[in-house]
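Re: that backbone. Tokens:
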């Protein structure tokens, strides 16, 4: 169990988890579509904490300059329409930059 000191220990744990998930999405080969599906699902159906973490991960993923190169994999391998929509948003974001 984590001891909280003004909420900092919990916040650092969330930041570490966000960074780990983001790193996996950006660098894993093959692309971890199951992880992305889970993150997108938590954005829509998770607890408030899960929603916040998912939002942070997805925004950072979309803003990464290499995320557009993952879109073909996302569209091809997910069966989740919300994940496909996110993939298209990531591509649109890269085009608009």
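Recovered sequence:
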């Amino acid at each position: 169990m984590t001891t909280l000191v003004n909420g900092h220990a919990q916040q650092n744990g969330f930041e570490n988890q966000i960074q780990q998930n983001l790193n996996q999405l950006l660098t894993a080969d093959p692309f971890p579509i199951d992880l992305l599906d889970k993150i997108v699902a938590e954005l829509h159906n998770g607890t408030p904490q899960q929603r916040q973490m998912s939002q942070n991960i997805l925004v950072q993923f979309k803003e990464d300059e290499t995320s557009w190169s993952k879109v073909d994999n996302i569209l091809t391998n997910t069966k989740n329409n919300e994940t496909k929509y996110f993939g298209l948003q990531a591509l649109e974001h890269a085009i608009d930059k």
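The radius of gyration is 14 Å. Helices lie at 8-27, 33-45, 48-63, 71-77, 81-96.
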